[in-house]
Automatic annotation (TrEMBL), chains A, B:
Any Pfam family matching the protein: CitG
Gene Ontology molecular-function annotations: ATP binding; triphosphoribosyl-dephospho-CoA synthase activity
Entry-linked InterPro entries: CitG (IPR002736)
Ranges in coiled-coil conformation: none
The name this protein goes by in its record: Triphosphoribosyl-dephospho-CoA protein
């Protein structure tokens, strides 16, 4: 019987092993300086923080610990966004893994949780959008230098997430009761075949559902929209089952163009955790 | 900073991710009913037992716990032999990861450790050779039914390993101070490129070095010898670097023929642990 922390850890491993996941590192693809083994080491390093969350620690410190451990490998950022989703979900699983419970947990986050979240950015190089002018003092890239401004405004971690929507679909999960993560877990349960194949199908449908916000941040809205339109065409014909070569070709093309829908991979990892922990799927 | 248990866990993940590893599940190959994701889940499940060893628990019970957790996935036996090597190595790392320390630890194993080892066979289906007639009461496949005979003869776990040599090169490591595992760790340090590529090179040279005992048990000495001769030809020309396609073709052929040099993969996992824990390699 796996613990919630072990299921979260396994979800991170299954996410990176699932293929094809267009634009992302997967079982069959590496990026230039970010390779499969970096994700394996990142998942192992994240574990202590995930265990803290499962043991009832506050979400911010547990997340910071998970990120600090994840960052102890040479590929830099591998699973920051996935851990930002998994930490409250694992914390919820300590009582009950449901949307109402995780919603109330994120509502209860404090300024101290927000401060820990800012400190987490000092461990890794995360791609984020420039904040609006009035939020410049709270640019996450300032790390702990932003904490005084955070405390002055009395912003909790969920407040920070609200500020990040739109433009960050990981933050959006925090303010929508993790709706896409829970819905994707149901899709994993309904799909056929080995779990990594199901995860590839769910990844494609998530990518078809909304433009990836990491792609929008790094490459612009038009590229993000193009990628989603292409994914939608493939998802509409259930291409993972009916024309896998087309999805493989799309995956190779995105890797070549350096287009990385990382937010969609983060939500896929969250869905894998929910599905494993709720025993919607087995392995 | 990874703990010894985390390095052992990462070693299991890196071993299965390393490719090509002829005849074994690797990043690019699955067997019929034994897939990549089963090894990921097996490695996650083994962790508590590895932590017990790192915390100074007796080797037998820690091993049994690791196997029980490993077996909680649908692929049955994934890493039994690797855990039989990793458990004493992780236990040694709690003080000092060196050949003299691990040798003295295995010398100190007890009848209770042997009993736990026998109980471990009840969690998974492990391929082993028929024992000699006088050892039939101690056939490991009898599981805990063999424990009274074990206690009557006063056999410790290292005694049981001595009885298993020749015919089991995992047991051979136990009675030779883990010489191939430590030597292979040095080879990992001396090789070039990403760690999974180094592990593939070391796997091939281990396979070239001695016929795989799991292949000999399941398919006969002649097949084991043929596989080693083929591996020796490829290793002699450093084929992983100079003619990778030839190694990939050999890997595909062994998978098709159902020839699985699992003992060689076990020793590769042990070498990865030693190299990570001793900081001979980084990731």
């Amino acid at each position: 019987m796996r613990t919630p922390a072990q299921n979260a850890h396994l979800a991170l491993l299954l996410e990176v092993a699932s293929t094809p996941k267009p634009g992302n590192v997967d079982r069959h693809r590496d990026l230039a300086d970010l390779r499969f083994e970096h994700f394996l080491a990142g998942a192992v390093g994240a574990q202590r923080g995930l265990e803290m969350a499962a043991d009832g620690a506050a979400i911010g410190p547990a997340f910071e610990r998970a990120v600090a451990g994840m960052a102890e490998q040479e590929g830099d950022n591998t699973q920051f966004g996935a851990l930002l989703l998994l930490t409250p979900l694992v914390r919820a699983a300590a009582t009950d893994l449901s949307q109402p419970v995780v919603e109330s947990l994120v509502e209860e986050t404090t300024v101290a949780d927000a401060a820990a979240f800012y400190r987490a950015f000092e461990h890794v190089d995360v791609h984020v959008a420039d904040p609006p002018a009035d939020m410049a003092p709270l640019d996450v890239r300032r790390g702990s230098d932003a904490i005084p401004a955070l405390e002055k405004r009395g912003l909790t971690l969920v407040d920070v997430m609200e500020q990040s929507v739109p433009g960050d679909d990981v933050a959006r999960e925090w303010v929508t009761g993790f709706e896409r993560s829970f819905a994707a877990a149901e899709q994993l349960a309904d799909a056929d075949g080995p779990l990594p194949d199901r995860a590839a199908t769910v990844f494609l449908s998530l990518l078809a559902d909304r433009p990836d916000t990491l792609v929008a941040t790094r490459r612009g809205e038009d590229v993000a929209r193009e990628v989603t339109d292409r994914a939608a065409e493939l998802a509409a014909q259930d291409a993972i089952s009916t024309d896998r070569d087309a999805v493989e070709a799309f995956a190779d093309e995105l890797v070549e163009r350096g287009i990385n829908p990382g937010t969609t991979a983060d939500i896929t990892a969250a869905a894998l955790f929910i599905a494993l922990e709720s025993e919607l799927v087995s392995i």
